[in-house]
Design goal:
Distance between the termini: 43 Å
CATH superfamily of the largest domain: TT1751-like domain
Number of domains: 2
CATH class of the largest domain: Alpha Beta
Largest sheet: 6 strands, antiparallel
Length: 173
Amino acid sequence: MNSRRKILRLAIAVATASAAFVGYAHAREMGMPDIKRLHSTYSFQDTVDKLRAALEGKGFTVFSVIDQRQAANSVGLDMPPTTLLIYGNPKGGTPLMLAAPDFALELPLKVLVREDSDKKVSVVFTPATALDGRHGLPPGLAAKLGGAELVIVAAIGVPNTEPPQPAPQGTTR
């Protein structure tokens, strides 16, 4: 009976690994978003504050700041500090939604700030290049959103050198 359990566990592990690989490959084929992950030179809260101030200072509206750790705590769960800033500029985004109405699913833009167990602070967002052509957006129009990336990079004090990373398996939009 012990060998049956081992075989069953092995089969489950192989099936899970296969599903993860197929899911990742399918996500890449379906144009799932690439993400940009940068490491902030500031503490978690300073990073959140600097991003918000920089975005607002450049004319973006910060529509919402979601403290996901606080939300988790409200239901008795814990997680590392994690905050999502939702921001945009209707003057810049509206023409894109007029060109491709379903592109509204991508707007407003979002930037995630999270802290890992080593107190390293990551800033994660979808670069404009990954949005190009999505939802029928004519080629080249997503580049108009790229200005926000420069604001983010400047706010957190790091050079913009890391290439986009594939979204983690299981990520949904």
